[in-house]
Amino acid sequence: MASQQTLVVSQAAKEIYELRLRSILEQSHQDQYVAIEPYSGQHFIGETLTAAIQAARQAFPDRLSFALRVGHETTVHLGELST
To answer: Where are the domains of the chain?
Structure first.
């Protein structure tokens, strides 16, 4: 189960994505990853999930960030895709 802090960070980051970033990033960064540090509002783009998270951690080593895949409902998919 996620901690209260994780839930707060994820909700705040999702709001930032929906209100400020979605329309911009889906035009220019489709299928890439974005890590959002919600207290500063800064975001970090990466070709991989690891790259986005590492960029956020480098900028804010003591803060949690939340990552999303641009243009997708989920960040990662586990299992088989149905056809």
So the answer is: 1-23+30-38+50-68
- Give the span between the Cα atoms of 73 and 77, in whole angstroms: 10
pTM: 0.87
Q: Which is it for the CA torsion 47, 28, 30, 36, positive or negative? A: positive
CB-based contacts of 56, cutoff 8 Å, min separation 6: 35, 36, 37, 42, 44, 65, 67
Q: What is the DSSP pairing of strand 66-69 with strand 42-46?
A: unpaired
Please tell me the predicted confidence (pLDDT) of residue 29: 97
For 55, counting Cβ atoms within 10 Å of its Cβ (0-12 exposed, 13-18 middle, 19+ buried), the class is buried
